[in-house]
Amino acid sequence: MYSGSVIPLPISHRGLHTDFPENSIPAFLAAIEAGATGIELDVHASADDVLFVHHDGGLSINGEVIPFASLDSADLVRLRLPGDIAIPTLDDTLVAIGKAADVFIEIKATGVENSVARCLRRHLDNSGRYAVHAFDHRVVKRMLELLPSVRTGILQVSYLLDTRSVMRSSGASDLWQHADFIDASLVTDVHAAGGRVIAWTPNTEKQWEHLMALGVDGICTDRVDSYVGWTESPR
Question: Kind of pairing, strands 51-53 and 38-45?
Fold first, then answer.
């Protein structure tokens, strides 16, 4: 087993999608079965304001890419991912995961903060297990205005001169930092402010070893089954 004092949280990036489509309920459940304690997923809203779990802002239908926001929920529930698997709503996903894992929700669409807040209020029994993050830091700030109890995070794929000030201004307590832009100074700085560093998306043992040594709090990976097995293996 890893000999460090703390093993970073095993967070599954869009579910375990080796056997199932990413961002699908079977992929999320497979990740939990493999040992993930966190699930990271993406959300978009339909034209009638129903939240669906999907990465891209458009769907390829009959060779044409149709924006998610132009499709009604009735149209979306009829569509199928490979393997005849439904595109899940966020409500259905939260029910399926239940208390089995933390859920980290990346808001991809613009102007859906109210919809996300309403959805999370419908699942108050597990509210302590939900967090929201986004590249658009204004979204993070808005979510805290709507739902002050929710944990929030900012996404970055660069190394800022003053990350702590950005976290303070947005109200974020988690820093989702691209694995290539994490060093010991950054981790120390965020921890000193009471925050967490979650690395995305390291998929190799060499990266995991390095990030563990730096003291990151979570590893969001496409290979959560391998990561969990790696942390449990003797070295």
Answer: antiparallel
pTM of the model: 0.95
Using alpha carbons, select from 125, 182, 115 the residue that is nearest to residue 146. 115
Q: Name residues whose C-beta falls within 8 Å of residue 162's C-beta, 6 or more positions apart in sequence.
A: none
| 14 token code pair | 């869009």
- Buried b / exposed e over 190-229, threshold 16 CB at 10 Å, is beeeebbbbbbbbeeeebbebbbebbbbbbbbbbbbbbbe
Express each pLDDT in 129-185 by its tens digit.
999 999 999 999 999 999 999 999 999 999 999 999 999 999 999 999 999 999 999
CA distance linking residue 142 with residue 104, whole number of Å: 17
Q: Are 14 and 40 in contact (CB under 8 A)?
A: yes
Instruction: Please provide residue 40's backbone torsions phi and psi, each rounded to the nearest 5 degrees.
Output: -105, 135
